[in-house]
């Protein structure tokens, strides 16, 4: 068991355990903060997958952006009178159904993952992906890139418009 | 056992089902949103895993980046909408938001 | 002025009063005086324009028959409805008459109607009336003529019933309108006969058609009937016997209205119509017209003698004079008939305005004395007004002389011509036709008598009541129109010769047109010599058209006719009738002077010097007096015959409706109800059962399926995932 | 840029070496923090015309040590109604964020803990972990002042991140690299080649010098805000919010915050040094140039910036919240955009 394998299991555990906390926690703030670790774990997995740029993007956008937004959302939409902020579980039947369906899906997906013969290609050389991503983004995916920038602009303007006080 | 594609796929599957469970079992909209983020992350793990092992190479990264962009836009707009819903109903429980106007 | 400009100006003249109507109609709740100023100034402009157009036509284009335009209005199938408008000499003269009198009446009403709470509305109605009347004048086709004919009817109705709070006023309005409708029915029938035959409403087309020998239904009688039908319209509008009953009642309207509409313009429209379509009347139709005119003139003159209401006397006098005009036209005296229309318009308007002046003064006096019961229009309440209202008196006296046919007045010129015409006609035709001049002369004498009776009773002697002694002269706005109108009644305006008008401009301008009727159906003495020759030689050939100069537009009528006449007879007369009239000129003049003089003398003897007692006469001719006083019982006669008949028919129909039709309806309703009940049971049990069954099945299914449609996204997600699982299970 | 780390060359890649590489910056930070605290105390005293700590050691130079000992001895209070786990976790998260940034800071041409290609980006991203720590601590304290302090802090961080990012991006545009080691080595050959003066290049770079100087100032101001230093210390403005998000903290956990703040100060200074002030390069060309001298120059420059921050802290008054937002969004942001566009144009035309 080398360091890489160890790191993989560490990050996998981090992701899944805190993912579980996110989902099962009764306190919404705990859930939100657990998300931090989940994201961090995923970023770690990216690093192990030699996607350094993606990993940092993950940290920057998910933790620095989306998570902050979510926490702001929680704070602005919940009456925080104490530290135990309920995350609003549904009725027992619904949870049961959700559990069954999720478990079934998990079993199915894992079964599929394990039994399918995936097209494998030789493992790519380790190295910086930034240049490659930049070149591809501005050549092959230039249209999608511009569309995404427009989308973000519109989302910003729209969000600001929707959220402002009447 | 060498860490390979299936490892990541399994992790992704588990993360996906966790997210799904979060979406289905919670009333609080923000909890649903968090579940959604988990699902998107699971998808991204798949993309990157296939980029490395499945020959998707840089295209997988690009796809993941677009997923992240969409997630950011979605979170911004969704939270803005939630703020509005909260101003109207004083809560953000999904199944109690049931009228289109006051 | 170019012809196009002239037509353009005519259109402007036509629509200017309409603007007055629109402006005043939309400000009918505002202050009144402004409306008066607006209406009067618009009419002033209109009058100036009308003068320009009229002089232009009469001076520049005097030799052009008619300046007109025609355009397609719309088409029904393959039939094109063509309308248009045009100015000929009589239209030009009528333009002058209508606008001048209308302007003076506007001016007069400014004081007369002051303080009335519907003052703006009054001016609006006056504008509407003037517009409609000008439309009649300018029309060169039956369709427009008919449309404006009805517009005149409606504005007359509005103005007669202007004080509609008074039942008599609103009744009078309705009576006028309905009576007119009866005449219009004939008018419409006549128009339709002509339209069916000639396929056009244009005068030109129709006259050309008649001249070409084409007759309605190939029957000369139908042409006569068409003429009589159109004349019936004139009978209604011009209050000819037996449709004259509405005009005296129309005096319920404000006096300026009586002057404008029921003396000078609207009632003259009938005469104008007859003159306009004169060329299409057959000999039979003309005889009918002459007889009707004569009866009207005589009957109303007899009634006027005994009336005591100031305006009623004038009203019957108007009817009588209209009878004269119609009679003149009927006897072929085209020019004199129309001449009398014009001269009569001035002095009758003056008479009515003078009456208005008197009534206004009486009203003021009554108001001053706080008397609200006396009748301000009863001449027995007046007397001695000569000293109180000198201007009114002298103008009134002068126009009374004109009406009576005393020399140096315009009335003498025209009436003399008419009477000479009747004599000539009777002489040329003979037989029972002599009754026409006899009754004509009698009526002329009676005219002089009753007019002087009116003057003497109302103005001479001492004041008969307190009210009369408190009257005083009216302001300039009232007096000025009187003076203007009476000045216009001086002979000089029509002919330099005070006893013969035939050399004056009027007779040069208004020349009797050539008849379009085939010679076989027309008096031979009304046909010009060329025409007679032409018809003799080429009977039924296209030469008719060429020989009917009156028909073709911008055809040089007057010189042509004169030229032709000079060639054939060498006397300067158009036809034999003119010549005969000339022969009878002095006879008629002496005779009428004699009769009018004796009428005046009689009036003075009875009412001024009381040598003959009026009461004695009244007692001795009790029956005649009552007969006259009650207007020959025409209203009662109509009540007892026509109205009673209609009521009886209506009652019979009501019974029929009540018992038979209602019974059938009720029976069918009952049958339907029973059938309905049976069907209802079937419907409830069988059909509703089936429908309900379907509905319930659907409903239960819906209620079951509805549970799936929770509205919760989460349950949809679950279902989607379940579906995915199933799909993967089956296809993986 | 494979391995600019002399430890790898010395000992090879094994667990112990990794541990050494990881802990080296920690050692540095400990020493640095003590010095910085002393500097803060002394400089504030001199600015206020007093002597400052004089009793502990000669001229009071041991005063920071005493302070640390005091903090370690203090009772560690955890508020009763707080969210215990998060409350205890927050200081570590914050310190983790601050310390993680040291991974890519090039102390010398021969030493950088992790020489990754996206170093600048990494530094930038890792800053957001500190933000999470702040909000975690603020919320978990169950104290309204803490919560408000945390929220203000977050909004301030987000607001000033953008001008700072624009400044960094401008340099990235000029260098076409995000590797901090590369950026540093590009600026070798005297202070004239530093990016504050437009970086290496011919006379045409004169056009961008105003913009690069401007960006340097912008980055400096933004970094003040990101570290919550005066005049941007509203999140912990004592006159309004007691002590901001760490009001409830005491003892060792407070020391962690304290520590993290000083570490952060050094991180932003180090970045400023690296991207604008030539990094470990000597300002005088080859004079005193080399791997070891590089450490000296780097620490000297960074320390100068830290001292500048301390100096400003005791000189300027605090901004109001609205002024803060105004400066961030309406002044710095447009200015940084202008500079960025200008520099991009320059880079494109070159």
Give me the CATH superfamily of the largest domain in chain A.
Answer: NADH-ubiquinone/plastoquinone oxidoreductase chain 6, subunit NuoJ
Largest sheet: number of strands, sense, barrel closure of chain D:
none
Mean model confidence by pLDDT of chain A: 82
Q: What separation lies between the terminal Cα atoms of chain D?
A: 25 Å
Terminal Cα span of chain A: 60 Å
Shape of chain D: globular
Low-confidence stretches of chain A: none
Largest β sheet strand count, sense and barrel closure of chain A: none
Query: Helicity range of the residues of chain A?
Result: over 70%
Q: Which stretches of chain D are poorly predicted, pLDDT < 50 over at least 5 residues? A: none
Radius of gyration of chain D: 20 Å
Fold and architecture overview:
The complex is a heterotetramer of chains A (166), B (102), C (732) and D (350). Chain A contains 6 helices and no strands. Chain A is mostly helical. Chain A starts with a helix and ends with a helix. The model of chain A has no long low-confidence stretch (mean pLDDT 82). Chain B has 102 residues and is mostly helical. Chain B has a single domain (5-94), classed as Helix Hairpins. Chain B is built from 3 helices and no strands. Chain B has helices at 5-25, 29-53, 58-89. Chain C is an all-alpha fold and 732 residues long. Chain C is built from 29 helices and 2 strands. Chain C has a two-stranded antiparallel ribbon. In chain C, helix 2 (32-60) runs antiparallel to helix 3 (89-112) and helix 3 (89-112) runs antiparallel to helix 20. Chain C is elongated, with a radius of gyration of 34 Å. Chain D is mainly α and 350 residues long. Chain D has helices at residues 6-11, 15-47, 63-73, 84-100, 119-140, 144-175, 180-186, 209-226, 238-241, 251-276, 291-313, 321-349. In chain D, helix 6 packs antiparallel against helix 8 and helix 10 packs across helix 11 (291-313). Chain D starts with 5 loop residues before the first helix and ends with a helix. The chains are: A mainly alpha (166), B mainly alpha (102), C mainly alpha (732), D mainly alpha (350). The interface between B and C is small, with 8 and 7 residues.
Keywords:
heterotetramer; B: about 100 residues; mainly alpha; Helix Hairpins; elongated; C: about 725 residues
Write the layout of secondary structure elements.
The complex is a heterotetramer of chains A (about 170), B (about 100), C (about 725) and D (about 350).
Chain A (H helix, E strand, L loop, with lengths): L2 H22 L3 H21 L3 H26 L14 H24 L14 H10 L2 H22 L3
Helix pairs in contact in A: 1-2, 2-3, 5-6
Chain B lengths: L4 H21 L3 H25 L4 H32 L13
Chain D lengths: L5 H6 L3 H33 L15 H11 L10 H17 L18 H22 L3 H32 L4 H7 L22 H18 L11 H4 L9 H26 L14 H23 L7 H29 L1
Helix pairs in contact in D: 2-11, 3-10, 4-5, 4-10, 5-6, 6-8, 6-12, 8-10, 8-12, 10-11
């Amino acid at each position: 068991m080398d360091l890489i394998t160890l790191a993989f299991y560490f990050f996998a555990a981090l992701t899944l355990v805190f993912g579980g906390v996110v989902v099962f926690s009764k306190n919404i703030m705990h859930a939100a903060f657990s998300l931090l670790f989940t994201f961090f774990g995923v970023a770690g997995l990216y690093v192990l997958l030699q996607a350094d740029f993606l990993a940092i993007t993950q940290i920057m956008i998910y933790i620095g952006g989306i998570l902050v937004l979510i926490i702001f959302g929680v704070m602005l939409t919940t009456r925080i009178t104490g530290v135990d902020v309920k995350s609003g579980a549904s009725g027992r039947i619904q949870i049961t159904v959700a559990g069954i369906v999720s478990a079934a899906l998990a079993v199915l997906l894992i079964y599929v993952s394990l039994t399918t013969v995936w097209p494998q290609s030789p493992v790519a050389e380790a190295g910086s992906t930034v240049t490659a991503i930049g070149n591809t983004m501005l050549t092959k995916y230039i249209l999608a890139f511009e569309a995404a920038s427009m989308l973000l602009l519109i989302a910003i303007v729209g969000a600001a418009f929707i959220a402002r006080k009447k | 056992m060498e860490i390979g594609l299936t490892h990541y796929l399994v992790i992704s599957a588990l993360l996906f089902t966790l997210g799904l469970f979060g979406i289905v079992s919670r009333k609080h909209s923000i909890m649903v949103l968090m579940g959604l983020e988990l699902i998107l992350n699971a998808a991204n793990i798949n993309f990157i895993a296939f980029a490395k092992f499945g020959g998707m190479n840089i295209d997988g990264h690009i796809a993941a980046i677009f997923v992240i962009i969409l997630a950011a836009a979605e979170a911004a707009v969704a939270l803005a909408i939630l703020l509005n819903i909260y101003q109207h109903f004083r809560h953000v429980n999904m199944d109690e938001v049931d009228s289109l106007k006051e | 002025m170019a012809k196009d400009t002239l037509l353009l100006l005519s259109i402007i003249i036509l629509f200017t009063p309409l603007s007055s109507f629109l402006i005043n109609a939309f400000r009918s709740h505002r202050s009144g005086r402004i409306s008066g100023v607006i209406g009067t100034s618009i009419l002033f402009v209109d009058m100036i324009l009308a003068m320009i157009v009229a002089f232009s036509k009469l001076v520049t284009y005097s030799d052009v028959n008619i300046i007109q335009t025609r355009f397609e209005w719309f088409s029904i199938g393959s039939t094109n409805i063509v309308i248009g408008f045009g100015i000929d000499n009589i239209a030009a003269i009528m333009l002058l008459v209508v606008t001048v009198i209308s302007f003076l009446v506007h001016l007069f009403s400014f004081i007369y109607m002051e303080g009335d709470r519907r003052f703006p509305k009054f001016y609006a109605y006056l504008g509407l009336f003037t517009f409609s009347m000008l439309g009649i004048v300018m029309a060169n086709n039956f369709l427009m003529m008919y449309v404006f004919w009805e517009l005149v009817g409606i504005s007359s109705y509005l103005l007669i019933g202007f004080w509609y709070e008074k039942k008599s006023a609103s009744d009078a309005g309705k009576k006028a309108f309905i009576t007119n409708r009866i005449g219009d029915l004939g008018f419409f029938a006549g128009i339709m006969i002509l339209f069916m035959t000639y396929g056009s409403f244009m005068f030109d087309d129709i006259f050309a058609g008649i001249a070409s020998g084409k007759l309605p239904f190939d029957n000369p009688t139908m042409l006569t009937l068409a003429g009589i039908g159109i004349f019936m319209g004139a009978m209604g509008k011009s209050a000819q016997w037996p449709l004259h009953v509405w005009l005296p009642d129309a005096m319920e309207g404000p006096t300026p209205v009586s002057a404008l509409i029921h003396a000078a313009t609207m009632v003259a429209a009938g005469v104008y119509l007859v003159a306009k379509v004169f060329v299409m009347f057959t000999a039979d139709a003309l005889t009918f017209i002459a007889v009707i005119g004569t009866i009207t003139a005589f009957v109303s003159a007899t009634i006027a003698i005994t009336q005591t209401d100031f305006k009623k006397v004038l009203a019957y006098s108007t009817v009588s004079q209209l009878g004269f005009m119609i009679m003149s036209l009927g006897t072929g005296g085209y020019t004199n008939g129309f001449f009398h229309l014009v001269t009569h318009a001035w002095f009758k308007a003056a008479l009515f305005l003078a009456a208005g002046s008197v009534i206004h003064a009486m009203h003021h006096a009554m108001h001053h004395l706080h008397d609200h019961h006396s009748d301000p229009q009863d001449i027995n309440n007046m007397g001695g007004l000569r000293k109180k209202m000198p201007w009114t008196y002298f103008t009134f006296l002068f126009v009374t002389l004109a009406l009576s046919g005393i020399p140096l007045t315009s009335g003498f010129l025209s009436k003399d011509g008419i009477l000479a015409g009747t004599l000539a006609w009777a002489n040329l035709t003979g037989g029972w036709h002599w009754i026409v001049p006899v009754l004509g002369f009698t009526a002329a004498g009676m005219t002089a008598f009753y007019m002087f009776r009116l003057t003497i009773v109302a103005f001479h002697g001492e004041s008969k009541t307190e009210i009369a002694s408190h009257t005083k002269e009216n302001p300039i706005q009232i007096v000025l129109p009187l003076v203007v109108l009476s000045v216009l009644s001086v002979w000089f305006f029509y002919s330099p010769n005070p006893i013969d008008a035939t050399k004056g401009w009027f007779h040069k301008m208004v020349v009797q047109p050539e008849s379009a009727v085939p010679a076989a159906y027309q008096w031979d003495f009304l046909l010009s010599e060329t025409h007679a020759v032409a018809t003799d030689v080429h009977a039924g050939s296209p030469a008719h058209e060429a020989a009917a100069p009156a028909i073709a537009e911008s055809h040089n009528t007057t010189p042509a006719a004169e030229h032709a006449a000079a060639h054939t007879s060498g006397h300067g007369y158009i036809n034999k009738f003119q010549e005969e009239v000339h022969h009878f000129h002095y006879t008629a003049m002496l005779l009428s002077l004699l009769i009018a003089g004796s009428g005046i003398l009689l009036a003075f003897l009875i009412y001024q010097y009381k040598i003959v007692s009026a009461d004695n006469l009244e007692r001795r001719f009790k029956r005649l007096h009552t007969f006259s006083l009650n207007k020959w019982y025409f209203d009662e006669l109509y009540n007892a015959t026509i109205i009673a008949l209609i009521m009886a028919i209506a009652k019979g129909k009501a019974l029929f409706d009540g018992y038979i039709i209602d019974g059938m309806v009720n029976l069918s309703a009952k049958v339907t109800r029973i059938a309905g009940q049976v069907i209802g049971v079937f419907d409830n049990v069988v059909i509703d059962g089936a429908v309900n069954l379907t509905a319930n099945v659907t409903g239960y299914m819906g209620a079951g399926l509805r549970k799936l449609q929770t509205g919760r996204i989460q349950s949809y997600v679950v279902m989607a995932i379940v579906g995915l699982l199933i799909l993967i299970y089956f296809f993986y | 840029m494979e391995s600019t780390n002399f430890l790898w060359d010395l000992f090879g890649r094994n667990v112990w070496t990794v541990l050494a590489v990881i802990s080296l910056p920690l050692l540095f930070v400990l020493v640095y923090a003590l010095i910085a605290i002393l500097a803060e105390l002394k400089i504030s005293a001199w600015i206020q015309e007093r002597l400052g700590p004089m009793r502990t050691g000669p001229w009071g130079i041991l005063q920071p040590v005493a302070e640390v000992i005091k903090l370690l001895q203090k009772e560690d209070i955890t508020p009763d109604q707080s969210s215990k786990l998060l409350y205890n976790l927050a200081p570590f998260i914050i310190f983790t964020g601050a310390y993680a940034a040291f991974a890519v800071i090039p102390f010398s041409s021969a030493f950088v803990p992790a020489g990754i290609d996206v170093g600048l980006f990494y530094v930038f991203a890792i800053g957001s972990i500190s933000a999470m720590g702040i909000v975690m601590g603020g919320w978990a304290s169950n104290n309204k002042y803490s919560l408000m302090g945390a929220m203000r802090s977050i909004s301030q961080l987000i607001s000033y991140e953008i001008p700072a990012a624009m400044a960094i991006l401008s340099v990235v545009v000029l260098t076409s690299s995000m590797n901090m080691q590369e950026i540093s080595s590009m600026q070798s050959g005297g202070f004239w080649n530093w990016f504050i003066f437009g970086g290496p290049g011919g006379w045409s770079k004169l056009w961008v010098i105003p913009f690069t100087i401007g960006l340097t100032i912008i980055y400096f101001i933004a970094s003040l805000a990101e570290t919550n230093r005066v005049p941007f210390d509203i999140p912990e403005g004592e006159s309004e919010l007691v002590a901001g998000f760490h009001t409830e903290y005491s003892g060792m956990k407070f020391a962690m915050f304290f520590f993290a703040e000083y570490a952060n100060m050094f991180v932003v200074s180090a970045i400023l040094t690296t991207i604008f002030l030539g990094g470990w390069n000597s300002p005088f060309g080859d004079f005193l140039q080399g791997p070891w001298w590089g450490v000296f120059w780097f620490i000297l420059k960074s320390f100068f910036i830290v001292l500048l921050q301390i100096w400003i802290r005791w000189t300027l008054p605090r901004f109001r919240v609205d002024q803060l937002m105004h400066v961030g969004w309406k002044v710095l942001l447009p200015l940084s955009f202008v500079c960025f566009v200008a520099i991009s144009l320059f880079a494109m035309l070159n």
